Amino acid sequence: MPTWSWSSRFQLGQYVRTSLWILPVLGLAAGALLGEAALALDDVVGIPTGWRYTATTASGVLTAIVGAMVALLGFVVTIGVLVVQQATGTLSPRYMRLWYRNPLQKTVLSLFAGTFAFAFTLLRRIGPDTVPDLGVTLAGLGVAVSLVMLLVYLNRFVHDVRPVAIADRVCRTGLRVLGVSVQAQGRCVLLDERDDGPPLDTPAQVVRAVEGGAVQGLDVAGLVRAAARYDCVLVVAHRVGDFVPPGSVLLEVHGTHRGPAEPRRLAGLVALGAERTVEQDPAFALRVLADIATRALSSAVNDPTTAVQVLNHIETFLHGVGRSELRGRHVLADLDGRPRVVVPGRGWEEYLELGVTEAREYGVGSLQVCRRLRALLDGLLDGVPDARRPAVRRQLVLLDDAVEREYPEGIRRTLARTGDRQGIGGGGSSPDGPARPDGDV
């Protein structure tokens, strides 16, 4: 595969976005450069007498700053380790893929590292007759900014480490990705697959995966250009998020009229990696939400209320999906309107199954989970287009079957089949009609 293929650039971008060391290293370099600049300006800029320091005082202040920044770096790293432990134990290991992208944490680490390098650069230049007064003052200001950023980081960490806050962030991320259509990614024409879909027969050529991995992204625009260059139709064999074993078909080439395509170049338009990412895969966000709800329902955690709170965000996500245009496959054309690329899509039923199946299977023993699930499905019946309601009704039938098996007693079964947006205590409505006020007969 070409060294700088699209997939290589995509993987590099993924590495940079999830890396926790690149920005701090840049902060170190920036701090050292700013320290040299402060030393150069010290002889040019006039410093008030009250801001001047003796060599002993300046050395003590800078030494304290260097030690404090190293300690704060260790403190933030310790918090990161705690997040990893919590995510793998009570949340979802898949969430770590999103947590690594937290810009505030990288900013705090970079600021601490830069302040350390700035103070150390000044410290090594202090002598009996040389005191960087301006630099010492700026170093003190850097410490003040660092402490403020630390407080902001702690406030964000304390509030955002809760499962419900994480669910909200994951939901918003998934909806943002869902709003970016395949057509917008490729800046191309989206055809109606029923009317203008190309007739596909036996492919003239196939492109196979060399190493295998999960499909993380597609260069849609590159695929359209490549298909136009070879005057063919490219069919992507797997959806974004699928795992492709080594040697499996990655792309199918139909109707080449300008000679065989270059497999290595075409394979470079599909990014494969060790795990799924959210860039072009909104279902991955829903996968993380379902994982958090399932972990909360496990016997080790046994926290159905958290599962109910996560179901709130799953419902939000499903409402967004239900109002979006979904296709079983996307037929993309060049600017002349000729079909060039076929990309498999994900339908409404698949999103719905992903969002509610595991919560139903693992949470049927909890009354509040059953009641919240019914309220979720009832809300979808009212909020999605008519064509998508049969899938919701099928999920209601599956929920009724699970409740019938789990609750043989009539009263508990009735409670479990009553929708309640709070799970328990929200004044739910019966599946046979809305709840009546106390005293009505």
UniProtKB/TrEMBL annotation:
Keywords: Membrane, Transmembrane, Transmembrane helix. The keyword Repeat does not apply. Residues 410-441 are annotated as: Disordered. The keyword Membrane applies. It holds the Pfam family DUF2254. The chain crosses the membrane at residues 20-41, 61-84, 104-123, 135-154. This is DUF2254 domain-containing protein. It comes from Streptomyces variabilis. The lineage of its organism: Bacteria, Bacillati, Actinomycetota, Actinomycetes, Kitasatosporales.
